[in-house]
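Now for a concrete sample entry.
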Amino acid sequence: MTKRFFRTAIAGVALSLAAASGAAAAECIAPANPGGGWDFTCRQIGKILYDIGAVDKPVQVTNMPGAGGGLAFNYVVTERNDDPELIVAASSATTTRLAQNAYAGRTASDVRFVGAIGIDPGVIAVAADSPFKTLKDLVDAALADPGSVSFAGGSAVGGFDHIKPLLILKTAGLKDITKIKYIGVDGGADAVTQTVGGFTSAMTGDLSEIVGFMKSGDVRALAVLTEERVPGFEDIPTAIEQGYDVVAGNWRGLYVPRGISDADFRKWADRLQAVADSDQWKEAMAANGLAPFTMVGDQFQSYVDQLVADIRQMSKDIGVIQ
């Protein structure tokens, strides 16, 4: 057995014999148990990479749950920092936790974020009978009297659902975001219930959480937080087209070890772009409620750096971190 295998075994992760023997097959670490978003990212992207010929061996998937992604992150930094055949599933939760120092001092610069190729779109929605007909109506009310506007979301205070409307309001010029009331509840359905019941002005969450409520006529979506309107939901305008340059959703993407070469980083960026361009990925997005969101290479790294900085500052502003 190789030294790598012993290290991985200590971490409680079983690698395949191919990886242990030094074969060049790529490996994707999903920082969670099977099922869920990170596992989906590894398995779908890995399968498509092989199906379209971007890699010549099937991509091996290793599940490494722990510390909300922190165990895998630390393992990559300390044990696999220069492995050119390693990719790791990431999402908006990764950047939020990095911004809030949830990975024990690790930062986004400890790895390289190679790209994102899909997103569960963020959304701002109101009750069907709400007086707010547009996102601007809601934003203007918050700017005029921040204490009069409140949001319900399925994450805790300081989580990404809380951050989404604050990104919009900060873009609109609101100086003191602590005045905006937020109620964290157990999931998007409960957030909708709070809003429909009149306890909050709006709900903040993901599009997938409100589809059924839109069909039943209980809520109206004021904005979807993507670059373009979502296929199948073209009647919902983006925040961008309404004047608020905010893209916020649960993006699905990858990072790679910091110590790999620029050439290997570009190789993974090109491979990920090839997956994004494939019919197989478009089918996977449609089947799993994802919207198009493709950003790879240096542009995505810059996006992540800015997102981490924005979330860190907002987390300080609302008292989540010091």
